[in-house]
Structures are given as structure tokens and as C-alpha cells.
Amino acid sequence: MRGVQFGSGVKPTLLAAAVIAAGAMSAGETSAKASGETIGIELNKLSDEGASCQAYFVFDNQGGADYGKLKLDLVVFNADDVIERRFAMEVAPLDAKKRTVKLFEMKKMSCDKIGSFLINGVLECKQGTKTRSDCVQRLVPSSRVDVKLTK
Q: Considering the entire predicted model, what is its pTM?
């Protein structure tokens, strides 16, 4: 069997490390889903109210533990994929085995300017008394409107 030849400038060890890291991230997401410890986050509705856009999110914590702290780093893109706004979104408390609706108001922004939302990261996450570092992998985004919600 012949060895794999890599393109110039790509070291086999770097490529192997990247493959292992991607597999570990995927395994983390799979284990969170398999254990039922995921948090669904659905963009459910956008509504213009005066000069502001109200975004309604549904959080579905089907795991067995409450989240006392959960703060997301959220980025809003316009229809041309240009960043319009970035903000921290505090979504806790999230009770175990419960769906919760959270309303966020984006002042001086109309809903028709929003092209998509990106969950850029998790700034803070505490499940019960335990600080978690895998909360991004636990989030399962979806949208019921024409505006995408991704991570």
C-alpha cells in the first residue's frame, strides 16, 4: 500500500491533529445529544415594535439539571452577511425538563434588516453548581422564520 502524499506546506502531524480535533468536537456533540443533555434554541418569531425588533426565542432544556447561568455571545448579520450588531444574551435560568420563551429587544433596528443570527460562543455556563465548558456543543439551534439561527 502506498503512503498518502500531502501537498506542499502541509505537515502530516498538523493534518492528523486537525482530524483528531474535529473528531473530538463531533464526539462531544454526539455524546451531549445521546445523553439528552442538549438545549434546543429556536428562533420562533420576529416582531417590529416601533423602532425596535423583538426576537422571541424558545429554549428547550430536556436535560435533568437546571442552568442557573447561561450567557450567549450572539451576532446579528444583515441580508448581505455583514455584521449589524453583537451582544451578550443572558438566557438563564433554564429549568430542567422545561421549555421557556425569552424575548430580546434590539433597539433601533427593524426586523427586515436581519438576515441571520450566529451563536458565536458561550460566555458563561453553569449547570446546577457546576461550571461547564461544553455548552456550545449542547446547543441545538433552529428557526421557524426565514432568518437562520446557527452556531
A: 0.76
Q: List pLDDT tens digits, range 7-49.
A: 444 444 333 444 444 444 444 444 454 456 899 999 999 999 9
For residue 89, give the nearest of 44, 41, 32, 138 by alpha carbon: 41
pLDDT, tens digit (0-9, with 9 covering 90-100), for 112-123: 999 999 999 999
First to last CA, the chain: 40
Nearest Cα to 10, choosing from 23, 19, 1? 19
Query: For the chain, which residues make up each domain, given as ranges?
Result: 39-149
> What would the CATH number be for the domain defined by 39-149?
2.60.40
Q: Give the cell for residue 137.
A: 456543543
Q: How far apart are CA 103 and CA 113, in angstroms?
A: 18
As a whole number of angstroms, the distance between CA 148 and CA 151 comes to 10
